[in-house]
Amino acid sequence: IIVENAAALQALKINFDFIVVGGGTAGNVVANRLSDNPGTMVLLLEAGGSNADVLNIIVPFYAPRATPDTAQDWNYTTTAQVGLNGRSVTYNRGFVLGGSSSVNYMVYTRGSMDDFDRWAKVTGDEGWSWESLYPYFLKNEDFTSNTTGHYDPSVHGYSGINTVSLSGYPTPIDSRIIDTTTQLDGYPFNLDMNSGNPIGIGWGQATIKDGSRSSSATSYLGSQYIARPNLHVLLNARVTRVLQTATGVVRSVEFVQDLDGPKYTVNATKEVILSAGSIGSPNILLHSGIGDSSALTELGISSVHNLPAVGQKSHRPLLVIPAIPCQLNRYLGHRDAQRHVVGGGVHRVEYRSHGSSGPTSAHYELIFCNGMLPPPPATGNFMSILPVVVSPASRGSITLGSNDPLADPLINPNLLGADVDLVIMREAVKSAIRYTTAPAWDGYVLSTLGLTDTSDAGIEAYIRANAGTIYHPVGSVAMSPKGASWGALNPDLTVKGLTGIRVVDMSIVPFIPAAHTQVSAYIIGERASDLIKQTWGIN
Ligand SMILES: Cc1cc2nc3c(=O)[nH]c(=O)nc-3n(C[C@H](O)[C@H](O)[C@H](O)COP(=O)(O)OP(=O)(O)OC[C@H]3O[C@@H](n4cnc5c(N)ncnc54)[C@H](O)[C@@H]3O)c2cc1C
């Protein structure tokens, strides 16, 4: 049930068992799974508005229009990035029901077995291993395509909630991408990059249903779920702090509906679940006095619980350079509209101190677009290859610049902060250029655009001048083993040293998966729901 406003919510006088903060990718999974028991009262508070009827987030083609600088984006920018010649870059996050799953590019990649096995190792909890999480991938997924030879049917789920499909129409670069795998060494064809072994080049899968975006809002909060009488959803409800109801017990939530309007509080009888994302969750905790107590005191925020890991040094970004555009001698589609990812691939490079989780994990990914990113020059036909560092070693931070909970936090992803990331990006750029030297591209690709000096130094300068981020922040409220003196969360996602509050979103991740991150957010939501139900004996 969508509640009209805070006054209407208060008039209901409901004792909510659970309050979920943030109706994003993971938060909507939790709201759905907890409310499937009709006796459990769930309140979901989302800062943004409705996803309904917003064309830019419904039509897959329009995804690049959904952010930045829109009403559905938090419209953040980073601090000046030393590794990018002091540039600040936009840092998009969904500000709408569905969160970033409502504005993302819909690429569906799970990551590798080693990625999740590393989570299990780092947290000491086997429940985070690939094998343990595998059922959750299937539970999330409603795979709909059936193009033989483009995927492995045995590794997908067909009765889940969130739709995943293969590209619905062919583009002129598809066969060239795939043919190259047999013409060049080092790019093996991978029938399905979501099997846990993503190395190679294969057909892209996306969270698209019947030509429309499948987000956590359209799937987990689809009409049959949002109508549940025990699930209440309040939009435009921006949470400013979580509050103690007794010493060490955090079961109260403070929020506003207007930036200069009154503050409201609402209590949970069982738990508050923070699912405000990798920027939102540490931001709320810090303003609540849960973080590094000396840094908070300096800002005039009373320390409630000293937890230095919140927002600190755990935030691993992904990098992408705007693209290696290639000028084509002909083009078979509509020039501007064809910004569509049709294939993808992930690769390893030999480098001693690399940061990937193991042999099944990539160092970099090449994303192929049948069109140009950013928007193309006035004449000519273009495709792009986007190299992405998927196992970056750089670590950044989310900190506060003021004690105003409505002010933007300071987002420092520290892009290219570790030398190895620059080396891997340089190799990825070379690899992208090499890819189009295969016979499959003869007479099709004329030249690259923008990058003229292809020496190591020339490529590095190009990267520093043009690189940005692919919007996959993680680890700003990371898990560590139970009892560890570092980390912010226990492996069951409870906040260390506090009762009544868990964090469930991408901020919990100790190491980034070498993948796009929405699938992880979904399965974190799925496992967390089971952990919460176990704690409270809910079926
Ligand atoms: C432009 C873009 C493109 C991307 N492309 C892809 C892709 O193609 N494939 C892929 O796998 N991943 C992609 N990602 C990343 C992926 O979408 C995210 O990693 C994932 O959705 C994050 O899920 P989450 O639950 O952690 O956070 P979110 O989905 O961001 O949810 C957080 C929610 O909390 C709300 N919130 C925040 N603060 C407050 C507050 N104070 N009070 C109340 N509510 C609050 C937000 O409005 C939001 O709805 C992309 C991301 C972006 C931004």
TrEMBL record:
Family matches, as SUPFAM superfamilies: FAD-linked reductases, C-terminal domain (SSF54373), FAD/NAD(P)-binding domain (SSF51905)
Family, per entry: Belongs to the GMC oxidoreductase family.
Organism the protein comes from: Mycena sanguinolenta
Residue numbers binding FAD: 96, 104-107, 239
Cofactors named for this entry: FAD
Protein's recorded name: GMC oxidoreductase
A Pfam family per the record: GMC_oxred_N
Catalytic residues identified in the record: 472, 516
UniProt keywords, alphabetically: FAD, Flavoprotein, Signal
Top-level taxonomic group: Eukaryota
